[in-house]
Amino acid sequence: MSNKINAAIIGPGNIGTDLLYKALRSEHINPVLMIGVDAASEGLKRADKLGIKTCSKGVEGALELVKELNIGIAFDATSAYAHKDNAEKLNTLGVTMVDLTPAAIGPFCVPPVNLSKLEPGKLDNVNMVTCGGQATIPMVAAVSDVQPVSYAEIVATVSSRSVGPGTRQNIDEFTRTTARAVESVGGAQQGKAIIIINPAEPPLIMRDTIHCLCDSQPDEQAITESVLKMVEKVQAYVPGYRLKNGPVFDGKKVSIYLEVEGRGDFLPHYAGNLDIMTAAGLHTAELIAAHKLA
């Protein structure tokens, strides 16, 4: 029996291409198909040179290939609008969707926090929240694992060069989705999310600040141990995820400061915000595949 599951990537843009490079190193995911809608796409041409089958007729035009190639997992790096239709078509064929769009049809997933609770082997659709959520929610969860958090606020600062037009047009959606996941996945009773797009040149890597307000005086030793343990869990699939300062304790407030440097697979090192999304998507797919293959 193969120890890999064949996978498709929908969307040959920067995120889809970075994901492809990462997936080529995977122990459990075998990328065999890239799907787009433009035959002249540089991403499709690049995939073809890497020996990956390509389809420029969208998911509808790729359904026979999906069956022929025995695709078990598909990453969707298109848009929330397109994802609903893509998921309906591919779920019917038994394909599990790893959704990197804001569609949120499936449950939110931040792998080291809640994937194991979602019964990975039975999932047909899982949503990767946002880049800010992937970076900061593990820290909120690390604090709320120790004691109740009444309020959590995260600030994600990203380079302007790493923010595409889709994100710029949906800033409100980004903040609402992230705040909702800070509560439902991170465990805070109330969450708030802020994104800052930094135009500095040369571009700065992603930086994140997390403030948690505990119900009672923080257990400093237990929270510090929990935070350090969670940092290690994220570093297992995002090597550039680093604790810069903290946890800092001020009364009932706990503050944590991070930076995320990209691995540089396809995107520049400063684009840690995009790198953590593709890395989290692949890590999630690998864990789903491991359950399916067990």
UniProtKB/TrEMBL annotation:
InterPro entries: Acetaldehyde_dehydrogenase, Acetylaldehyde_DH_C, NAD(P)-bd_dom_sf, Semialdehyde_DH_NAD-bd. Residues 6-121 form the Semialdehyde dehydrogenase NAD-binding domain. Its EC number is 1.2.1.10. It holds the Pfam family AcetDehyd-dimer. NAD(+) binds at S162, V163, G164, P165, G166, T167, R168, Q169, N170, N273. CDD domains: ALDH_C. Keywords: Aromatic hydrocarbons catabolism, NAD, Oxidoreductase. The active site is at C131. It catalyses: acetaldehyde + NAD(+) + CoA = acetyl-CoA + NADH + H(+). GO terms for molecular function: acetaldehyde dehydrogenase (acetylating) activity; NAD binding. Belongs to the acetaldehyde dehydrogenase family. This is Acetaldehyde dehydrogenase.
